[in-house]
TrEMBL record:
Pfam families: BPD_transp_1 (PF00528)
Gene3D superfamilies: MetI-like
Organism: Paractinoplanes deccanensis
Parts forming coiled coils: none
Family: Belongs to the binding-protein-dependent transport system permease family.
Parts of the chain that traverse the membrane: 34-57, 99-120, 132-153, 182-205, 237-257, 295-319
Predominant location category: membrane
Keywords for the protein's UniProt record, in alphabetical order: Cell membrane, Membrane, Transmembrane, Transmembrane helix, Transport
Domain of life: Bacteria
Domain ABC transmembrane type-1: residue ranges: 95-316
Membrane topology qualifier: Multi-pass membrane protein
Subcellular location: Cell membrane
Protein's recorded name: ABC transporter permease
Amino acid sequence: MSLTQLRPSAQHRAEPPRTPNKVKLWLYRFDTKTVPYALIAPFFLLFGVFGLFPIIFNGVVALRNWRLDDPTLTGWAGFGNFTKLLSDEDFWNALGNTFGIFLLSTVPQLLAALIVASVLNRRLRATTWWRIGVLLPYLTPVVASTLVFAVFFSRDYGMANWFLSLVGFGESDPLDWRAAKWSSWIAIATMVNWKWIGYNALLYLSAMQTIPKDVYEAAAVDGAGPWRQLWRITVPMIQPVVVFTVILSTIGGLQLFNEPMMFDENPQSASGGSDHQFQTIAQLIYKVGWKDLNLGYAAAMSWALFLIILIVAGVNALLTKRIGGDR
């Protein structure tokens, strides 16, 4: 056997191990380990500056005596600002107004949004036009729409009283919508419902379109009508979106500020009417903090509102899940 036959071919020779390029290795590690943190860092920086720090600082202010009109009045108040809330008639009045308007706006709003979404989910002519049309109130600036509604509910020349006069109500003595609690609550709740029904309806509609049509066809064969299909099929199958809208509506309804502020004849006072008949918690916080210049007490009110929102939102979410069949 010749030496050429015993000598391994060039193709089968073991190649020496390649030394990795240090620059490429460093770039790879930088791209996989550092770049992701660099990309998400701006969010956390902005959240820390404009979100977390104000919350912590507001908690510190709530435990102090802090008045802008009296810089000498400083020092720790402890829980004194919070205990003061228990005997503050203005706070409980504003809390009652907030819950009253919240109930009149949130419950009818979500029910109407479900019905509108159910109608839009059917085969209609000009479907795109209708879907865009229900969203127009949401796109309208809240100040502009509230000013229009303030004129609509005007005592002497408002169209609301004109409609009531057609059925024989208030012909000689027009209703002053700002004078009483119930009438002002209805007026403000109407503004909120008008703005948010279309937005929630589109959220429900997007969830409804994920439900297979076969489910509705099978229910129709079993004799279920549109109303029964809505509550027995649609609502349970879009439950996550319903819970989402309930939580959002709870947060927004308990923080109501723009509508009652602009509905007042004297918005700068933030008094919510001549007898505080529609003053909300958010208005009272603004008034105490920036009109009465008592920042410590206003901060305590804001923390109380925050805790109330957490409790109410949690209770609403649990009730919604139980109603939807999630045990």
